[in-house]
Amino acid sequence: MRRHSIFITPLSIALAASAALASAATQTTQFQVRIVITESCNIQAVAASDIDFGTLTRSTGTPVDAQGTLEVNCSSGTPYTIGMNPGTNATSTTAAAGNRRMSDGGNNFLAYGLYRDAGRQDFWGDVVGTDTHAGTGNASTQSVAVYGRVPSTDAPAGSYSDTVIATITY
């Protein structure tokens, strides 16, 4: 009986490995990595921000002023404008000075104005770039004041109101 011995050397392992690699196949593919970043803005009137002129006696005296607040939260760097429609009782479909009116629910109306400045000189309308408020988002809530004025309380006794829609464009 004959015996055969096999010796495995590092050279024989290397030759076996290279033969296995020579028969291996490869494939490649490519893919995209994407993200879509959008700008966003949120606008709301805070709970206590209605413009409430209070309870007053009928008079043709001094104008009555009040103030409300809008809260805006836009993503950082997002430019925005805020416009306001003329309200539900306006004398015209444009939000021009002198058009806004509150109603007592009947046939009585009371004129008022909304302004972008405390001096009540810059009327607040809805024509972007003309009579709107412009700002830039900073990813935090920003308060935007709304200044109101009733030029005269010379109207029949009653409870007057109006609804105005503020719109943010970004």
- H and E order: HEEEEEEEEE
Distance between the termini: 95 Å
Q: Report the β-strand fraction as a percent range.
A: 25-35%
Low-pLDDT stretches are none
Mean pLDDT score: 83
The proportion of residues forming helix, as a percent range, comes to: under 10%
- Please state how the strands of the largest beta sheet are arranged side by side: 1-2-8-6
What would you report as the Rg, rounded to the nearest angstrom? 36 Å
Q: Given the helix and strand composition, which structural class is it?
A: mainly beta
Total number of β-strand segments?
A: 9
> What shape does the CA trace take?
elongated
What's the story with the biggest beta sheet?
A: 4 strands, antiparallel
Number of helices: 1
Condensed summary:
With 170 residues, the protein is mainly beta. The chain is built from 1 helix and 9 strands, in the order H-E-E-E-E-E-E-E-E-E.
Strand-helix topology:
Layout: H1 10-22, E1 41-45, E2 64-74, E3 79-84, E4 101-103, E5 109-111, E6 113-115, E7 133-136, E8 141-150, E9 166-169
